[in-house]
Input
Amino acid sequence: MLKNVIITCSNEKSGDFLTNHWIKSLKKNVDLKNIDVVVIDYGLNNFQKTKLLKEKVILFKGIKKYHIVNKRFFDAGKFLSKNKYDQILFIDGGDTIFQEDITDVFNKDKNTFRVVPLGMEVLFFEWFIFDNFEKKIKEKIWKVIKNKPVINAGVIFARI
Output
């Protein structure tokens, strides 16, 4: 049976929250016996990395080119292309506290993406895409996402 994986990312600025709260709440409240925990490293300091490694976290070096909000998905894709898992939870590491065991969610609706759509009209795509991508790329992205629902990418469950 393949394991599941929880992936997050952090830099030094958010690293103290990740090491002092995120990982502690995860270890305290979630049954991790069939789950790997991966942190994409965007510049954690040595102390933060050491704390995470002591907690048996897999560190994966991210590339700091481009905005971390976008780059994290590409770097997660690189990691996942070399590692096989059943289910993936991609979750924010800078503002999440686990309050109870979430392992049941890995077994629900396993063949679909599980995300939370934003229920309000947002201009995120308009300003974010046009400020952060080259012209040809942003035109391709805009063609695909225009008039589609916006999701909260802070929590995504999926199967590769």
Summary: The first helix runs from residue 12 to 29.
